[in-house]
Amino acid sequence: MVIIMEKEADVKQIEQIIDKLDKFGFSVHRSTGVDHTVLGVIGDTAKIDPRDLQVLPGVADAHRISAPYKMVSREFKHNDTLIKIKDITIGAEEIVVMAGPCSVESEEQIMTIAEKVSSDGATILRGGAFKPRSSPYSFQGMGEKGLKLLRKAADKYNLLLITEAMDKEQISVVSEYADILQVGARNMQNFTFLKALGQVRIPIFLKRGIAATIEEWLMSAEYILSGGNQNVILCERGIRTFETYTRNTLDLSAIPIVKKLSHLPIVSDPSHGTGLRDKVIPMARASVAAGADGLMVEVHHDPENAKSDGAQSLFPEQFSELMKQIRGIAKVINRKIR
Ligand code: PEP
Ligand code: MN
Asked: Which CATH number do you get for residue 33?
């Protein structure tokens, strides 16, 4: 943490700040320049809110020079975290593809889609049984009955299963059926939920919040890691911007940024990231090129009649085309896709 004093700051104001920090156990390196005095705060500054210093008399600015997260950072752990589940490793050379409908709707639906995505090379089946919907009148998901169908389809077609839990009460039932537990964008800062997820061992798929900065997202991951669960996969799923042509703005730059800041794997979700079927393939290609460790894609055999997110769900033949195209891109960046 660095504190830059105002040009007019007097000795008393500078000493007051040094005393205050000293009382909290920090040591301060003072450097007196021609115009400004700069104070370097030494110690575990993650506990300090820079704004508490910015408002003190005589202070021009105060900001961090190190990140507030620890366990998720590359400094803490240099090597990439590999999440191994059965015969799949997330975060290694192979780019994993998670595909399936937005929601599980019936046995026939999930079996049809699982067979299709598996034959094209997806290794993880996605589908929601507990759905976070903006309207209470929209389809809310099939609940545990849906989880049973998802598991049945995943087992039949040799896929892993990822599905969402919306609160801590749903953790145990979702863990019973799923291989990966998804935390939806709307829950990224549900801190009691994140703390509970720190106490379980199932890998957590943490979607970026709709209006979350990368730092806030990594701090949410920090809750889970510091709680004891090291198996976290991050997912960029688009953020809200002023742009209205797409449902969300897929923040592709988050992929290389997260790769540099953190050792955790990152997956891109161009389906929620754009909200429009015809934008999914180009943004999936771009995500792979940007270095994503995986893709999450919504696919439906009859998207026009889907109970949720039909407009962003690919037709089966589009999914085959996507897989073909991203295999080519993976090759040129020395990665592979099944
Ligand atoms: C989903 O994956 O179906 C979903 C609801 O995603 P998000 O939380 O990113 O909106
Ligand atoms: Mn969806």
From this structure: 3.30.70.1140
Euclidean distance between CA atoms 274 and 280, whole angstroms: 7
Q: Characterise 304 by phi-psi region: left (phi > 0), alpha (psi -120 to 50), beta (else).
A: alpha
> 91: domain CATH number?
3.20.20.70
**Nearest partner of 74 among 258, 338, 269, judged by Cα:** 258
pTM higher than the cut 0.90: yes
* CA angle (291 as vertex; 288, 294 as ends), nearest 5: 60
pLDDT tens, position by position, 60-83:
999 998 888 999 999 999 999 999
Q: State whether 241 and 135 are in the same domain.
A: yes
Domain extent for 40: 2-63
Mean pLDDT of the chain: 97
Distance in Å, CA 149 to ligand 1 centroid: 19
Measured by CA distance, the residue closest to atom 1 of ligand 1 is 102
Query: 265-298: per-residue pLDDT in tens?
Result: 999 999 999 999 999 999 999 999 999 999 999 9
What is the distance between the alpha carbons of residues 245 and 242, in angstroms, rounded to a whole number? Answer: 10
240 Cβ below 6 A of ligand 1: no
Residue 74, burial from CB neighbour count under 10 angstroms (0-12, 13-18, 19+): middle
The answer to whether 67 and 215 are in contact (CB under 8 A) is yes
Q: Please work out whether the CB of residue 208 comes within 6 Å of at least one atom of ligand 1.
A: no
CA–centroid distance, 185 to ligand 1, in Å, is: 6
